[in-house]
Amino acid sequence: MKRTFTFLLLAAFAANVFAQGSVLKNADPVSAKFSPERLKRIDAMIEQNIDSGYVKGAVGFIARDGKIAYNKSFGLADEDQKRLMTSDAIFRIASQTKAITSVAVMMLFEEGKFLLDDPISKYLPAFSHPTVVDQFNGKDSTYTTVPAKREITIRDLLTHTSGIEYAQIGSPKMKAIYDKASIPAGFVADKILLADVMNKLGHLPLLHQPGERWTYGMNIDVLGYLVEKVSGKSLDQFFKERIFTPLGMNDTYFYIPSAKQNRLVAAYTFDKNGHIANWSKATFPAFDVNYPKANGTYYAGGAGLSSTVKDYAIFLQMLLNGGIYNDQRLLARHTVELMTTNQIGDLNINPDKDKFGLGFGLTSQNSSAKLGISEGSFAWGGFYGTLYWVDPKEHLVCLLFVQNWPFPHNQIQDKFRAMVYQALND
Asked: Are 264 and 292 a contacting pair, CB within 8 Å?
């Protein structure tokens, strides 16, 4: 009887540990089954990119089974201020905002607030009776339309198959249409509201028929407004109350508090000679990179957040754990599985035939063969050069944050991806 009770006690303890999931903790790389010597190759690669003038600074992060095997900062956070990069530096994470908004949407889905195949117009009437661009006149940005064959669904928005494209960084045709209507891409310092912009967007035409193909666009900004309408809270408030505070993500904001603004990394670009330069010394009138320091009111669910590597790693570890972190359950395990399952069928998001779930790109067999990332890993990145991926097969959470656009020397990202796997030691 005593032996049986002990077995049941141990089984209950193991089940409880599994239910809680891994919590990120600093660890010896060896305990996470990494080779310390091989991890040093990543140091050398990042330092070489800095020495070559490709980036000014970077933070790399690798965790396995919740054990932080690698968390290092390199170079400068701000050359003009001679400020060194630190592991708690705050970066503009841009499109990495999308995953957080997608989680917010799925939290409300779990509460029975809507179904994924509901038309978005059921909740946001401005998107009723969508149209599709037929003829476009590039000289004056006028256009004709045809009716869409069906309404846009919430699933269409989560998967970027709605036909909505991007303002400022999309195709010339749609950029012109959005610009004429004063639709921003999401990097906003002005005192405008998400509701006002999304209601204007709802009356504009789509690039293509809903569900016809995968087109990266402002879909998740629309869903940010959905979260606001359904929850009765601003997206900023919802994130803080339902995601950031429960997870302990204390350095993630749409607009950074003044006391933390000195930790924001400077943004860099490249001059006409191909040399890296501070953004403020270049000419990109479409983007004000100081937006995180504004006292703004535009909570762009597709692009607006700034964060640290550690904060975002906590968010990713929650997903790897099946929706739970440090006893805080945000999503059910089945919901995370739904989000990280191919939702676009035979459509592809790139030539490597990667797929898309509900908020995440999914690594295909072709991509796996290129760099070694396990098939089925889920990933994305941000406009200013941040990237992440989660590898459920190897229990990995990996991030590399830099702050550059564009990337004429983009190999640092692929090299980092490949070099994580060469350092595994099991």
From this structure: yes
